[in-house]
Amino acid sequence: MPTHTSTAQPLPAFAHAPLILLVTAFMALQPLSTDLYLASLPSLASGFGVPLSTVQLTLSLFVIGFGGAQLIVGPLSDRFGRRPVLLAGLSLYLAASILCALAPSMAMLIFARFLQALGCCAGVIIARAVVRDAYAPQDGARVMARCSTWLSLAPLLGPILGSYLQVTFGWRAAFVAHTLISAVVLLLTIQRLPETNTVKNPHATDPRGLLASYRLILGSREFWLHALPGAFSYGAIFCFISGSSIVLIRVLTVPTAWFGFCFAFGVSGYLIGTLLCRRLLPRMGTQSAFRLGTLLSMGAGLLFLASVAAGVAHWSQVLVVMFLIMSAHGINFPIAQSGAVTPFPQQAGTAAGLMGALNMLVALLVGTVVGATHNGTLYPLAIIACVLGMLVYASLQVATRAPEVAHG
């Protein structure tokens, strides 16, 4: 059973850089890109005169762009380095955020959100690869848990800020905030991020080299052992990201100005979960902590469906279940992110991209189902959360028992 008493330190070559701060900032772009404008979803529908299913495309197309780009960004960073690919991605995110804020139509907003996703993807993928580059393998999960603790402030405070921006200035203000935040992150990256990819792979983007990397990664039981439960765990929280504003504001009549606080309470579970993860890892070991987190995911989903079946329909019920599922994700996701990338030092970007694409595929399916099944009750959200919780737990059990796939 592993025990570590010292704080994880970057390798000597990168000790001068504020890597924890930078990695957290890159990863925070994703929750800020979604959570900051959640309170605006109902008003976007009425403001542009479109159905809620059309507004959901601003989330779905973001997920598609984010997921697809990861298959490109990862290998590009393996070949050309983390820094140039990241700078290009952040610049695109900045330009797309400006376009979102100025969008004259829903079609233009959806297109701008797609571009925003492409730039955001570079930050998240390269953040995972930087951790693999700059820290010893045994410290990866602890570093990701530490970053995730600070990262939780973004989905915690983002919806509160977004609610006030919506009530005070309207929906465009959220994208102005995206513009300002990304400009700061871009400037910080230019000034302080070193190149961490010291062993660039010149064949990473060649078709044969890329296929060889995919075969290696997808044939690894260690990859699936972490990536599959992590993806379903991400899907479990995404059902609340995509459905909570509609359920709380329209079904349970929570005032828009209060939505941010409600969402923040649920997301505070993620903060608690990451803190628990940091405590559990040295005491129980990675796999035992992972097992506990997946069990909590399943239990929360079952609790939600059972309470709805019993006739309960209250905003506090949604928040409690959301808190529990977010807590489980705070345990599961740092372990999943580190474990899926650690076995592949020369394909870290590609492995991070494959895991991210899997996360986004699950999120896209979940968001589509949430939007399509909304019927004015809590049943669709409860059923989806329950199914995903069971998949989180079952996928870890199946992957643990599966034999290693031969590759070569």
Automatic annotation (TrEMBL):
Transmembrane portions of the chain: 12-32, 52-73, 85-104, 110-131, 143-165, 171-190, 223-251, 257-277, 289-312, 318-336, 348-372, 378-396
Gene Ontology BP terms: xenobiotic detoxification by transmembrane export across the plasma membrane
Subcellular location: Cell inner membrane; Cell membrane
Record keywords, A-Z: Cell inner membrane, Cell membrane, Membrane, Transmembrane, Transmembrane helix, Transport
Major subcellular site: membrane
InterPro entries: Efflux_drug-R_Bcr/CmlA, MFS, MFS_dom, MFS_Efflux_Transporters, MFS_trans_sf, Sugar_transporter_CS
UniProt GO molecular function: xenobiotic transmembrane transporter activity
Domain Major facilitator superfamily (MFS) profile: 19-401
Membrane topology, from the record: Multi-pass membrane protein
GO cellular component: plasma membrane
Entry-linked Pfam families: MFS_1
Family: Belongs to the major facilitator superfamily. Bcr/CmlA family.
Protein's name according to its UniProt entry: Bcr/CflA family efflux transporter
Source organism (scientific name): Noviherbaspirillum humi
Lineage, opening ranks: Bacteria, Pseudomonadati, Pseudomonadota, Betaproteobacteria, Burkholderiales
